[in-house]
Write a structure and sequence with these properties.
The protein is α+β, with helices and mostly antiparallel strands. It is built from eight helices and five strands; from the N terminus they run βαββαβαβααααα. α1 packs antiparallel against α2 (about 75-90) and α6 packs across α8 (about 225-235).
Length: about 240
C-alpha cells in the first residue's frame, strides 16, 4: 500500500525528528554534527524556512523545530536527509539505508506545546554546546556556530551524552586557561579582556568548553553579570 502524503501547512510550526537504523550511529563525532548543520543552513538559505531550535546531542537522532514560512517542508527534509546520507556514504562507514523509516513531524499549535517540547529536549546534565540551541516561542535561532576548534587550534570539548571529561570544570582552571592564552599573545589577562571582541570570543569558547555556570563565567571575565554573559552568548552563538 502506498504511503499517505503528509498534510503539512506551509505556514505551520513543526517539531521534526529523525533517527538512524538501530545498528547505525547518525553522528560519530562533532565533525558529523557540523556537516549536518551545514546541510540545514544550506536548506534554510534555499527554502527560507525559520529555524526555532535544533538538537543533535544524541548519536542516533536529531531534532529540529521549524516554521515552514511558506516552504514545502517535505522538500526541505528530503534535501537535508539526502545530503547528509550521501555524506555518510562517502565516509565509507555505511552503505545501506541510513535513516529508520521516514522522519516524524508534530505540528505545534500553542506556546505551551512549544515549551513542553523544548523542555523535553533539554538535558540538564549536559553542558552547553553549539549543536543544541533553543529559541523562545516565535524566536528564530540564527546561523549556528559549527566550529569545533578555537582560534588557537584548541579543540572545543562539547558534551552530547552526559559527563564532559575534558571540559574546564572550575573557575581556577578557567583562569589558568585565560592566562595561558594571554601569554601566547604576549599580553596580560587584563589586556586580553580589554578588547571586547576577543573577550566575547573567549566567553563563547569558555561556554562551549566548560561546565561552568553563567555566573562563574562572569566572575572569570572580570565580574560580568549573568545577564551580560547571556547577551554576549546570544549575540555570538547563533
Amino acid at each position: 500500500m502506498a504511503r499517505q502524503a503528509r498534510k503539512m501547512e506551509p505556514f505551520g510550526i513543526y517539531h521534526i525528528y529523525q533517527s538512524s537504523q538501530e545498528d547505525t550511529l547518525l553522528f560519530m563525532n562533532d565533525k558529523d554534527r557540523a556537516y549536518f548543520m551545514e546541510t540545514v543552513i544550506r536548506a534554510k538559505q534555499r527554502f527560507g524556512f525559520k529555524l526555532f531550535a535544533y538538537c543533535l546531542k544524541h548519536p542516533k537522532m536529531y531534532h529540529l523545530v521549524l516554521h515552514a514560512n511558506g516552504s514545502d517542508l517535505s522538500k526541505v527534509m528530503k534535501s537535508i536527509n539526502i545530503s547528509y546520507a550521501m555524506y555518510v556514504k562517502n565516509q565509507e562507514r555505511h552503505q545501506e539505508k541510513l535513516f529508520k523509516d521516514r522522519y516524524k513531524s508534530e505540528k505545534i499549535e500553542t506556546e505551551n506545546q512549544f515549551n513542553n517540547i523544548m523542555n523535553g529536549l533539554k538535558d540538564p546534565n549536559a553542558c552547553f554546546n553549539s549543536f543544541c540551541q533553543f529559541g523562545d516561542y516565535g524566536e528564530e535561532v540564527d546561523t549556528p556556530v559549527i566550529e569545533t576548534k578555537t582560534e588557537t587550534g584548541d579543540k572545543m570539548y562539547c558534551c552530547f551524552d552526559g559527563e564532559c571529561f575534558e571540559c574546564i570544570k572550575t573557575e581556577e582552571e578557567a583562569y589558568a586557561k585565560l592566562k595561558a592564552l594571554a601569554q601566547e599573545k604576549q599580553m596580560t589577562v587584563k589586556m586580553l579582556l580589554k578588547d571586547k571582541t576577543i573577550r566575547n570570543q573567549l566567553i563563547l569558547m569558555m561556554r562551549q568548553s566548560s561546565t561552568l555556570s553563567l555566573k562563574s563565567i562572569g566572575e572569570v571575565f572580570g565580574g560580568l553579570s549573568e545577564s551580560t554573559v547571556c547577551k554576549i552568548l546570544k549575540g555570538k552563538c547563533q
